[in-house]
Specification:
The protein has 214 residues and is α+β, with helices and mostly antiparallel strands. It contains 2 helices and 14 strands, in the order αβββββββββαβββββ. The N and C termini lie far apart (94 Å). The model has no long low-confidence stretch (mean pLDDT 83).
C-alpha cells in the first residue's frame, strides 16, 4: 500500500525558452539592405536610360533596281534586285550597334531570294545611314500559284514585294551598354515594271515607313 504523503512524479513537459531573435533580425536586416540596393540600382539605371533616350531606328526603301526577275518555271523564280534602304537613328544621345544582319525578299509571303548576310553597322546618334544590298542570284523554289501570280503582276506592270531585315541591336549611351535585342524590320514596297525582262532602276509606286520590332 502506497504512502499518502509520497510525491507523484510531475508529468507536465518542461517549457523551452524561445530561440534568440538576434539571428532572425540580422537576416532580415541583410535582406532589407540587399533589396534596397537593388531598388536603388534599378532607379539609377532607369534614370540614365531615360536621360540618354534610346529609340527604335527608322527604315524606309527609297530606290529599287532590277537586275533580273525570271520565272523559269512555275516552281522556280530567279531574282536579283538592289534595294536602297535609308535608316535613321532618332535618338539625340544614344548610338545603335547592329550585328548578325540578314535580308530576304518575299512575294506573296513566300521567299523568292535566299537570305543575304549584311555587314555589321554602327549608327551614331541623330544620323542617317543608307545601305544598298543586292538580294537574289540563285533560283528559289516556290509554290506554283506564286510563280503564276508573279508573271501576271509583271504583265500588269506592278509588283508588290516585302523585304525583311533581321539582326541584333545594342544601344550605347555614354559608357552604358544595353543588352542585345532581336530586331525584325518589314519593308513593303510596290514597284512599277515597264515590261517583262526589264533591267534597271524601276519606279517606286509606294514605300511606307518600314515596321520595326525590337
Amino acid at each position: 500500500m502506497a504512502e499518502d504523503g509520497k510525491d507523484k512524479p510531475n508529468s507536465s513537459p518542461e517549457k523551452k525558452s524561445p530561440p534568440p531573435r538576434r539571428h532572425l533580425d540580422s537576416r532580415s536586416l541583410i535582406a532589407a539592405v540587399i533589396l534596397t540596393l537593388l531598388i536603388l540600382a534599378g532607379i539609377i539605371i532607369l534614370t540614365l536610360w531615360l536621360v540618354y533616350d534610346p529609340r527604335k531606328p527608322q527604315f524606309r526603301v527609297l530606290k529599287v533596281t532590277v537586275f533580273n526577275i525570271n520565272t523559269t518555271s512555275p516552281l522556280l523564280i530567279s531574282t536579283a534586285m538592289q534595294f536602297t534602304v535609308v535608316t535613321r537613328n532618332p535618338s539625340k544621345r544614344t548610338s545603335i550597334h547592329y550585328s548578325h544582319l540578314s535580308a530576304i525578299l518575299l512575294y506573296k509571303d513566300q521567299a523568292i531570294t535566299p537570305p543575304m548576310m549584311l555587314p555589321p553597322l554602327v549608327h551614331d546618334a541623330k544620323t542617317t545611314v543608307a545601305m544598298s544590298p543586292v538580294l537574289g542570284g540563285s533560283p528559289v523554289e516556290v509554290a506554283a500559284e506564286v510563280g503564276y501570280s508573279l508573271e501576271a503582276d509583271e504583265a500588269y506592270g506592278a509588283v508588290s514585294l516585302r523585304m525583311i531585315i533581321k539582326g541584333r541591336v545594342k544601344f550605347k549611351g555614354g559608357r552604358i551598354w544595353s543588352r542585345s535585342y532581336g530586331m525584325n524590320v518589314k519593308c513593303d514596297v510596290a514597284v512599277a515594271v515597264a515590261k517583262k525582262g526589264f533591267v534597271g532602276e524601276v519606279g517606286v509606286i509606294s514605300s511606307p515607313p518600314c515596321e520595326v520590332a525590337i
